[in-house]
């Protein structure tokens, strides 16, 4: 049985949040603490290893995303992108820079760095890779390695307008606070679907307030980062 594709995630009922869980302490989101955590990781298990069973028959493909953490004086942020609406996979969704591995990539880190440079113009020299999270398998058949890096502020981005509609930063403190982690659930064709969302409201590219609905694989990988930093 194939799994139902979620066409309008914002319309799926919210069961609640995880406000009972503690937020990551601000000190743990500073560069020295982040470097230390990835250099000497604790014993932990990712809460969400993947989306579950595929909704279509597709040969699994390896991919990588870059999780760019930007340390500002006011606090660390996470650089995210909004994909264009015409793409085949995850159109219009909020995501990390990244994509499918190519034969010329030496490893998962090389894939993440290449994709980030191609998608948003983030030069490799500006990216300081500090580690990676466990692989995440998406419902669309991608085995994704989240590569975590520090990116010094002051960079200029050049977006690939075919793939990326917008790039923006979200405070890491917001994303690492489970009170902002919404739990959704619905049933379609006898199949149960569950996912997390982390809606973020900020000024869009036009300067007007808008909601960036962070959900699915991106929210799940952020949740795994929360678990990693909280372990």
Structural notes for this entry:
The protein has helices at residues 31-39, 108-120, 172-175, 216-230, and strands at 14-17, 61-72, 75-83, 94-95, 98-100, 127-132, 136-137, 142-151, 164-171, 182-188, 191-203, 209-215. Strands 2, 3, 4, 5, 6, 7, 8 and 9 form an eight-stranded mixed β-sheet that branches. It contains four helices and twelve strands. The chain starts with 13 loop residues before the first strand and ends with a helix. The protein has one domain (14-230): Nucleoside Triphosphate Pyrophosphohydrolase (Alpha-Beta Complex). The longest helix has 15 residues, at 216-230. A hairpin with a 5-residue loop joins strand 11 and strand 12 (209-215).
Termini gap: 36 Å
Mean pLDDT: 90
Stretches where pLDDT is under 50 for at least 5 consecutive residues are none
- Assigned CATH class: Alpha Beta
Assign the CATH topology: Nucleoside Triphosphate Pyrophosphohydrolase
**Which word captures the global form?**
globular
Q: Supply the number of helical segments.
A: 4
Known CATH architecture: Alpha-Beta Complex
Major beta-sheet overview: 8 strands, mixed
Write down the secondary-structure element order.
Answer: EHEEEEHEEEEHEEEH
Secondary structural class: alpha+beta
Strands, total number: 12
Instruction: Report the oligomer.
Output: single chain
Domain module tally = 1
Q: In the CATH hierarchy, what is the superfamily? A: Nucleoside Triphosphate Pyrophosphohydrolase
Helix content: 10-25%
Radius of gyration, whole Å: 17 Å
How big a fraction of the residues is strand? 35-45%
């Amino acid at each position: 049985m194939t799994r139902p594709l979620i066409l309008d995630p914002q319309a799926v009922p919210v069961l609640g949040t995880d406000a009972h869980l503690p937020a990551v302490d601000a000190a743990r989101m500073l560069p020295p603490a982040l470097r230390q955590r990835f250099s000497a990781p604790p014993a932990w298990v990712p809460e969400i290893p993947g989306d579950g069973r595929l909704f279509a028959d597709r040969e699994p493909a390896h991919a990588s995303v870059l999780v760019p953490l930007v340390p500002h004086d006011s606090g660390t942020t996470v650089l995210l992108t909004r994909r264009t609406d015409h793409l085949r996979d995850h159109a219009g969704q909020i995501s990390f820079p990244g994509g499918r591995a190519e034969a010329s990539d030496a490893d998962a880190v090389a894939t993440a760095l290449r994709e980030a440079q191609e998608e948003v113009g983030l030069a490799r020299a500006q990216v300081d890779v500090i580690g990676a999270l466990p692989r995440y398998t998406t419902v669309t058949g991608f085995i994704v390695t989240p590569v975590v890096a520090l990116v010094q502020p002051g960079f200029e981005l050049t977006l690939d307008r075919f793939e990326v509609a917008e790039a923006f930063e979200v405070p890491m403190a917001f994303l690492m606070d489970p009170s902002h982690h919404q739990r959704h659930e619905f049933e379609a064709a006898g199949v149960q679907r569950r996912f997390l969302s982390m809606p973020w409201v900020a000024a869009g590219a036009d300067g007007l307030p808008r909601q960036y609905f962070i959900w699915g694989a991106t929210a799940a990988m952020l949740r795994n980062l929360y678990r990693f930093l909280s372990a």
